[in-house]
Amino acid sequence: MDWAYQAGSIIRESFKKQLTIETKSNADDLVTNMDKDVERYFIDNIRKHHPDHQILGEEGSGDDVNSLEGTVWIIDPIDGTMNFVHQQTNFAISIGVYHEGVGKVGIIYSVVNDEMFHAIAGSGAFLNDYPLSKLSEVELEKSLIAINATWITKNKLMNPSKLIPIVDGCRGTRSYGSAAIELAFVAAGRLDAYITMRLSPWDFAAGKILIEEVGGTISTLDGTPLNLLGQNSIFAGSTSLHHHILKDYLHDSKS
Ligand code: 2AM
Ligand code: CA
Ligand code: CA
Ligand code: CA
């Protein structure tokens, strides 16, 4: 958390300077010099203190991780780069630490709001100094669900017809543009569920630990466990709501 606070002040300082913005897989997939600098900052610190740990980072300065043996740090230096570039808010640093494939420490630091969501597996989850409660049961009609509007329009990854009844049935939808913040909000009870079609391990590694620590459930949209070494669809939420939506809305009606 000290490193995340330190990286947070480096990012805030950068608002005064000119950013270098490049694109990656497509014109909407952005990366800046700060994404790379912050990743390197964490990697340098981790290597110094834990030379035997593996590091999986979005911007590629970490290791070529292809197994979860030993201790693995999964890092997204800036989650919500588009928000960072366009809004200078609503982005987060996300760090998940796994040991032999089991989540141990999850940190999501929403930099501009100065909100530190953190959990040590088995010892509780916190927002700054405040303990987060176990997630309570909620019915779909009373739920607030995070989903990006693009998934409700025609898209390459999923037929939206399965999602429309969920959007119709819930109390309201939200979209924050940072998967880590959306997962942290589910853990904090600010959202009841989060649905998205494709995330990488660094987008959800910390959020998974936080959500499971407060008794929530996170899986793919098919209900299968997440693969921490590849891309996944993501469905996170309060456990009873997750089960209800999976059973009545997402599962193939024939099965
Ligand atoms: P990023 O900002 O770290 O890239 C935006 O809706 C959310 O989806 C962000 O959390 C963003 O993470 C993530 N995301 C995952 N893959 C992406 C991609 N190819 N392009 C843009 N955002 C992506
Ligand atoms: Ca990115
Ligand atoms: Ca991300
Ligand atoms: Ca990122």
Q: Total number of helical segments?
A: 7
Molecular shape: globular
Calculate the terminal CA-CA distance, rounded to whole Å: 45 Å
CATH architecture heading of the largest domain = 2-Layer Sandwich
Task: Write down the Rg.
Answer: 18 Å
- The CATH topology name of the largest domain reads Fructose-1,6-Bisphosphatase, Chain A, domain 1
CATH superfamily of the largest domain: Fructose-1,6-Bisphosphatase, subunit A, domain 1
Sheet of most strands: 7 strands, mixed
Which structural category do the helix and sheet elements fall into? alpha+beta
Integer average pLDDT: 96
Number of strands: 14
- Spatial ordering of strands, largest sheet: 3-4-5-6-7-8-9
CATH class of the largest domain: Alpha Beta
Cofactor: Mg(2+)
Keywords: Hydrolase, Magnesium, Metal-binding
Pathway: Polyol metabolism; myo-inositol biosynthesis; myo-inositol from D-glucose 6-phosphate: step 2/2
InterPro entries: Inositol_monoP_metal-BS (IPR020583), Inositol_monoPase_Li-sen (IPR020552), Inositol_monophosphatase-like (IPR000760), Inositol_monophosphatase_CS (IPR020550)
Outline:
This protein has 255 residues and is of the alpha+beta class. The chain has two domains: 2-131, Fructose-1,6-Bisphosphatase, subunit A, domain 1 (Fructose-1,6-Bisphosphatase, Chain A, domain 1), CATH 3.30.540.10; 140-250, D-Maltodextrin-Binding Protein, domain 2, CATH 3.40.190.
